[in-house]
Amino acid sequence: MAGFTSASCEEFIEALASKAPVPGGGGASALVGALGTALGNMVGSLTVGKPKYAAVEAELIALKAQADALQQALLELVARDAEVFEPLSRAYGLPNTTNEQKAAKTQVMEACLRECCAVPLEIMERCCESIDLHEQFAAKGTALAISDVGCGVALCKAALLSASLNVFINTKAMTDRVFAEKINAQAQVLLDAYVTKADAVFTDVAARFA
């Protein structure tokens, strides 16, 4: 599965557009989140070393280190999303004629669905961390590249929203509704806090060109 992140852009897009079960929306969300994070990181790179921003250089170096780690985590989640979805796609094809088969299929499906919720939820969490970083890059980064902070935070917001749909489609199929609603609530908390924050960062950037 690591091959998805080492593939060319053309190869990834071709695989995404095909009828193959992976990559899918979760992996695409993670990749978009990594791209958004990299854009904020780039603004940090362009700012470090400039005398005008010497007062915040140490902070920017620390922010860049966090962004480096987030980029890597999100790329790993591209592969991880594919790894957990393939067993679920196979589970849908399990026989369910007899009561024993139905019970076994339900058990396997439930385990697979939990795995398939955990990964996009983690993608959401990483995107939220990146949105926090963009807020700092917007405040401290060079004005000459500030538009890239806006682009980056917009991508992270898109990744956050799209990853949430991958959480919700899997929780909807769960038989354990208590667990499902717990996961839904965790995802909704992230959406409520960070869609608004991403919009605020984007608006702040856009206002500088008004």
CATH homology superfamily: Formiminotetrahydrofolate cyclodeaminase monomer, up-and-down helical bundle
CATH hierarchy, class: Mainly Alpha
Rg, Cα atoms, Å: 20 Å
Give the second-level CATH assignment, the architecture.
Answer: Up-down Bundle
Strand content: under 5%
Q: Which H/E pattern describes the elements? A: HHHHHHH
Number of strands: 0
Structural class: mainly alpha
Shape annotation: elongated
Low-confidence stretches: none
Number of domains: 1
Distance between the termini: 45 Å
How would a textbook summarize the main sheet? Answer: none
Structure description:
- By secondary structure, this protein is mostly helical.
- The protein has a single domain (about 25-205), classed as Four Helix Bundle (Hemerythrin (Met), subunit A) (Up-down Bundle), CATH 1.20.120.
- Helices cover about 80% and strands about 0% of the residues.
- It contains seven helices and no strands.
- The chain has helices at about 5, 10-15, 25-45, 55-90, 100-140, 145-170, 175-205.
- The termini are far apart.
- The model has no long low-confidence stretch (mean pLDDT about 95).
